[in-house]
Design brief:
The protein is an alpha/beta fold and about 280 residues long. It has nine helices and ten strands. Helix 5 links the parallel strand 5 and strand 6.
């Protein structure tokens, strides 16, 4: 199992320093969130800066997936807005995601992960769904033309918040480019199936995995061992379905102690894999 760590958990580090620490701790890859402090997708000389990140990744022998959930990258007043669902500004989200797709192509990344967003209160659910399908169709075509896989992530509280919602979206978009991102904590938080069953159901589309601990009905990313996730069966299911992508730690609110938490996380996950092998 190839373990990675999300750079959104290293928000107080320069990207070069974060990559160095992550590699030194023994991770195989990174989930790189495009943000103002880590490869700003709207800053000048983007292709040149992307090439420099590519050289850093090669130097540290790190694989990469691209994450697009930066909080204020589009609007300094509204977290995660605008989304594909908004009446005004959806084109800004499309632009961001197309930039992410191009960065992914330039870096040879394994996937670009994104989500639907929260349905704005003034938007009817049917209208929001139509906007989401149309946006995903546009993005899937753009990604397919560049040989990039998208990983759509069901996110608690958003319009598409569970695996069933993703499967409905995938069926309507109908593109192989629209793969699936699963966050293991989310599977405990709000899915009716067990995490291993969700993995098996989503396996034909699975291109990206995020991992963290969580408890039922509370969308809070927790350090490993402090929630309700039973990790050995999760690793068993990922092996059973032949998943070979990154499994990246997703602790976006833990940057204050990033090196320590990253070290503790890889120790915990490797021990969980050992327990899985002994079952």
């Amino acid at each position: 199992m190839r373990l990675g760590y999300g750079t959104n958990g290293f928000a107080n580090h320069r990207l070069a320093d974060a990559l160095s620490v992550i590699a030194d701790l023994g991770y195989d890859g990174v989930a790189l969130t495009l943000d103002h402090n880590h490869l700003d997708p709207f800053g000048p000389w983007l292709r040149e800066r992307t090439a420099e990140v590519g050289r850093l990744l090669e130097r540290h022998q790190l694989s990469v997936v691209i994450e697009t959930g930066a909080r204020y990258v589009l609007d300094p007043f509204r977290k995660h807005a605008p989304t594909l669902l908004h009446t005004d500004g959806a084109e800004q989200r499309i632009d961001l995601l197309q930039r992410a797709i191009q960065i992914s192509a330039d870096l040879g990344a394994e996937a670009v992960s994104f989500w639907s967003g929260i349905l704005p209160p003034e938007v009817e659910p049917t209208v929001g769904w139509q906007r989401l399908v149309a946006g995903c169709e546009q993005l899937a075509g753009y990604a397919a033309d560049r040989g990039v896989r998208l990983g759509f992530e069901p996110e608690p509280g958003m319009l598409v918040d569970d695996l069933a919602g993703y499967l409905k979206l995938q069926a309507e978009v109908g593109s192989d480019a629209l793969g699936l991102t699963l966050d293991i904590g989310h599977l405990v938080c709000n899915e009716p199936q067990s995490p291993p069953d969700c993995i098996r159901t989503g396996a034909p589309y699975l291109v990206n995995v995020q991992i963290d601990d969580m408890v039922r009905d509370v969308h809070e990313h927790l350090e490993f061992g402090t929630g309700e996730v039973d990790f050995p069966p999760v690793f068993d299911a990922l092996r059973d379905v032949g998943y070979t992508g990154l499994v990246a730690v997703e602790l976006p609110r833990h940057s204050h102690a990033a090196p320590t938490i990253a070290r503790d996380s890889i120790t915990f996950l490797k021990n969980a894999q050992i327990r899985e092998a002994q079952r």
